[in-house]
What does this fold into?
Amino acid sequence: MIDKSQKTIYFLGAGASRASDFSLPILKEFFKGADFMGDEYQNLRQFIDDKFPSLPIEKLNLEEVVTTIELSLDTFGALGGHPEPYIYEARIELDRYIAAKLSIDTAKPCKLHEKIINTELAGENSVDSIITLNYDLVVDSTLYAKSPRRNGDKYLESDCLLVRMYDLLGVTLYVDTGESLSLSREKSNLGLYLKLHGSIDWFYCPNPECGYHQRFSPNRIGSDSSHNRSGDLCNLCGSPIISVIVPPTMYKTFEKFPKLGLIWSLAYRELNVADKIVIFGVSFASSDYYLRWLFKKAITERKNQLVIFNIDTNPDVAKEIKKITGCVPKQYSTLEAYLTAQTT
It folds into this structure.
């Protein structure tokens, strides 16, 4: 049974996806030269050649490429000029390249992640939360497999953890009162699933004048409806939509992706009131300034006692956590070691 008097936050990074059944790539090993031999990513390849002329493709870091392409499309980053037209196509191709590299069978839950994502955590009454920095769908697919269904069919119950995440991304509509400007107070103590850097299956309209610019449209796992793809036209203003892929540097992110402001604010709230935080595969790189700020602010401003567990093969990460938060985490090299310690 879930202990509603205690709140646990599972905070997952690239190391958790790398350790998953799908062995997904981390940021510094994302690009492969063989992927660019054909014409599928010709604009992206031109962008890489133009911006990283002396660096082999295999040496590129995804963080650097995403940041550079966002800066190239920004007025400040372009130094007041207009971006070259091909860069817009390169941005769409980058979306599709990332989605292809992170593609998994969403009908199959991850056996590793199932060790922490059970039916209680995925269900309607969970007070525990999952926060991730990853774009992939490993957590999503595992939550989908563990979520309660209406009458046993494939449609999820309306208030399970995964559906709560979907509901956060747009504007909640009520038949009797219309749009809700704030979060429901009745649900404010329940757990949340928050993806701080976006997701390969979240899309938005980049046109700031468009009514859809302020919301995200997720592709729902298991849905029969046609899913969005990067480059599809916004049905309100006609601009090509793009996926919500945010670099760890977070340059002007809340201006470009307004909805992320809510997601980060909720992450602060969850971390600030948690009794236990389980960090799995998060490097806390110095370039991820906003993440370090989030942890420092949420944990140093808290009132209750906190226990932090860190799961990582690199013991230096625990030193970074202590430097950021002032808390000494309990260190484990694997998820299995952590779980064993909790049962003894």
DSSP finds twelve helices and eleven strands in the chain. Residues 41 and 269 are 40 Å apart (CA to CA).
